[in-house]
Design goal:
Strand order of the largest sheet of chain A: 4-3-5-2-6-7-8
Strand content of chain B: 25-35%
Shape of chain B: globular
Number of domains of chain A: 1
Largest sheet of chain B: 3 strands, mixed
Number of strands of chain B: 3
Number of helices of chain B: 2
Strand order of the largest sheet of chain B: 2-1-3
Oligomer: heterodimer
CATH class of one domain in chain B: Alpha Beta
Radius of gyration of chain A: 18 Å
CATH architecture of chain A: 3-Layer(aba) Sandwich
CATH architecture of one domain in chain B: 2-Layer Sandwich
Distance between the termini of chain A: 54 Å
CATH topology of one domain in chain B: hypothetical protein PF0899 fold
CATH superfamily of chain A: P-loop containing nucleotide triphosphate hydrolases
Structural class of chain B: alpha+beta
Strand content of chain A: 15-25%
Distance between the termini of chain B: 44 Å
Order of helices and strands of chain A: EHEHEHEHEEHHEHEH
Chain lengths: ~220, ~90
């Protein structure tokens, strides 16, 4: 006997993600889901970003790792609301983990919610967490072929970062090839080159500020 | 290895749709290429996820579709107690 069903396998995840999104948008919070490989510099980028935004943009962070709270401890220097999620064997965050993290955050006055996903260029892409946008991150030390080899992240991301540009003189990395690969996959995606270590973040900070302002204005108009 | 977490979700979903006491023989899913799911890995993940459960002998059939991001459970083939596969309509 065959039972016909036709139901989205990620139905539950997507429903919870929808509730997260509704709550965050209702509160006028701009949310991005940062996806990149282990060691690409996600946490260092966020440390530098939060340091520069401190006193100007109120932020909260949910950070996912298999184990340890090291990232949360690093980010807590620059942000008073940081929740670490330990996924155990899980290679990505899911919407329910983010929902539980959100329950520990006071969103009153918060304008920016950052979700730092588990270091992984593949699995996090397929799981909606309720973010406004996904931010894809590559770094010079990973090699110039990573965008071409991870097309799903490039296609899903609203903005792409290339970190560790300070290493360009020291490692083989064909910047023109990398840019061409990105353009081939998603012609109009903004590609912002940064060095979190050297605090060289101008284009990225402009982008974050624009998104936060636009989300805040949109929420104010709805009220 | 997102195939494994998807297999766990799929297992829960199949259980919700399957009446108690029946044996699940085959589960059919349709996966869009944009999901980044490998059909062979998905089959392996299904074996791992169902191991030690009543569904451990079930087969996962993955149908792929280009230029799509869908991930759908399509159907579940079950065997009712006291009946063997293939005798549908022969009562």
């Amino acid at each position: 006997m065959q039972i016909s069903i036709v139901e989205n396998v990620l139905k539950l995840n997507d429903e919870i993600a929808g509730l997260n999104r509704e709550r965050l948008r209702g509160a006028g919070v701009f949310t991005f889901n940062l996806i990149g490989a282990p060691g690409s510099g996600k946490t260092m980028l966020l440390e530098a970003t939060l340091r520069r935004l401190k006193g100007r943009v109120r932020a909260a962070v949910c950070v996912g790792d298999l184990t340890t709270a090291r990232d949360a401890h690093r980010l807590a220097h620059w942000c008073d609301q940081v929740v670490q999620v330990n996924t155990g064997k899980g290679c990505h965050l899911d919407a329910n983990q983010v929902r539980q993290a959100m329950q520990r955050i006071d969103f009153r006055g918060v304008e920016l919610f950052i979700i730092e996903n588990v270091g992984n260029l593949i699995c996090p892409v397929g799981f909606d967490l309720g973010q406004d946008v996904k931010v894809g991150m590559f770094s010079v030390s990973e090699g110039d072929d990573k965008a071409a080899k991870h097309p799903y992240l490039v296609q899903e991301a609203a903005v792409l970062l290339l970190n560790k540009t300070d290493l360009l003189p020291y490692v083989p990395f064909d910047l023109e090839q990398f840019r061409a690969d990105v353009r081939g996959l998603k012609p109009r995606v903004p590609l912002i080159e940064v060095s979190a270590k050297n605090d060289d973040l101008a284009g990225w900070l402009d982008w974050v500020n624009q998104q936060v302002d636009a989300t805040g204005r949109g929420a104010a108009e709805r009220r | 290895m997102h195939e494994l977490s998807i297999a766990w979700m799929l297992l829960e979903q199949v259980r919700r749709h399957t009446p108690g006491g029946v044996t699940v023989r085959r589960v059919r899913v349709r996966v869009g290429a944009l999901r980044g799911i490998d059909a062979d890995t998905m089959g392996f993940a299904w074996q791992a996820a169902t191991s030690g459960t009543p569904l451990q002998d079930s087969q996962l059939e993955v149908e792929t579709r280009d230029r799509s991001d869908e991930l759908m459970l399509l159907s579940v083939e079950v065997e009712e107690p006291g009946r063997t596969p293939g005798d549908e309509g022969c009562r």
